[in-house]
Amino acid sequence: xxxxxxxxxxxxxxxxxxxxxxxxxxxxxxxxxxxxxxxxxxxxxxxxxxxxxxxxxxxxxxxxxxxxxxxxxxxxxxxxxxxxxxxxxxxxxxxxxxxxxxxxxxxxxxxxxxxxxxxxxxxxxxxxxxxxxxxxxxxxxxxxxxxxxxxxxxxxxxxxxxxxxxxxxxxxxxxxxxxxxxxxxxxxxxxxxxxxxxxxxxxxxxxxxxxxxxxxxxxxxxxxxxxxxxxxxxxxxxxxxxxxxxxxxxxxxxxxxxxxxxxxxxxxxxxxxxxxxxxxxxxxxxxxxxxxxxxxxxxxxxxxxxxxxxxxxxxxxxxxxxxxxxxxxxxxxxxxxxxxxxxxxxxxxxxxxxxxxxxxxxxxxxxxxxxxxxxxxxxxxxxxxxxxxxxxxxxxxxxxxxxxxxxxxxxxxxxxxxxxxxxxxxxxxxxxxxxxxxxxxxxxxxxxxxxxxxxxxxxxxxxxxxxxxxxxxxxxxxxxxxxxxxxxxxxxxxxxxxxxxxxxxxxxxxxxxxxxxxxxxxxxxxxxxxxxxxxxxxxxx
Length: 541
Prior knowledge:
- 29% of the residues lie in helices and 24% in strands.
- The chain is α/β, with parallel strands linked by helices.
- Helix 3 packs across helix 8 and helix 4 crosses helix 5.
- The termini are far apart.
- One of its GO terms (cellular component) is peroxisome.
- Pfam families: AMP-binding (PF00501), AMP-binding_C (PF13193).
- GO terms for molecular function: ATP binding; CoA-ligase activity.
């Protein structure tokens, strides 16, 4: 049934303009006057006490200590001559100091750019050459990567060593009451995050204060009934998922965030037990590992405080969702979908009932519009039709840094972000991500989604993990090749893998080559690094 303006209340689809409108309550965003994201977050009313706890040392910051530290560091940076528009590089594992650096830089109107601690000096040098930071924050353990990448870049160390140029010293200073305060507009740039580059070179994503404020408001609305809860942080803070949730969003709620410097299963489970954590944001591979080892885990750790798991990065199957709920009792699983280009926001499930629409990434986020577009004709599609997902709304990036060509090919003149994801929206408004557009395998003109074949192969009892990639072929263009991780004790053969798929798919989707591997390479958010596997396959040609 269609109602006002042709919008179907069930799906959110408007027949007159082919736009899917969010079924969530619209955001109440502040007027577009001078307001920075840090001020917006710190001014939210809440009764939170402890902001951050270091899981390994027990060191903690209360909310008053956090905001005092941010004020001091902001003041110190200003005294050093850091001004609006300057880029500051942050190279650090997760730590309770990471958000202090981010919030301080953003409150000055300067721009924070983060990088992966696993990156090599060569990779960091490329980001430095592109973003041109005037200052870097890092840890003593990672200092050589910065000096190797850019010997002349000034560095501040994030530890309590005797050196005078440390973050600790900056935090101890009295904030200057006379510092230069520059007017910051919500449209000014706040962050410069480099996309994971799963399908090509990494690009700098330029996000504004308005983008971050809208993202924080979505998190506030999503967890409005969860004030004062304790969250475990293992997802990397340099990535949009970690930055959005832990370094900014949850602070507006007054949550307590227990920070682990890196993912290690024992540390994760011990922290849930020791700090009585209730929320666990993670990526699917960790969730699957917790499911596969559930009996041993429950014998050794008390996870009774845990009531919600937040999963992002890839859809969860019915087997995984129900298996986890069965093993961990009263834990509900919430899922979400977002990109660096959309400030980590796009869609989410907000109840177990919504997550039980298996495979969904949830309903489109508040104040966000979606369109499904035919990849061949560019024609907008309707309910239950599969095409590329386009998104528009207050969290969509300003563009790619110093890359007008890439920006214009990704955001059109009407503000639509082409996500590169193949999706459909069902008759109840739920989004389903089918595959990456750039990852579709082109076999004799047919398009083969690797994710579909991966989901099928994961149902085989002898297969632990799998990735499907395009393998070049002169006659057919490309054909699907599978990299398979066998379950312990399994000796499934190449022929058995190919036969298993061939019995269940159209001929053009058949797997025509199989290689066995000890583990599938994935990025921090759980996405398969197909380009690494494509390079591996090419090296054996």
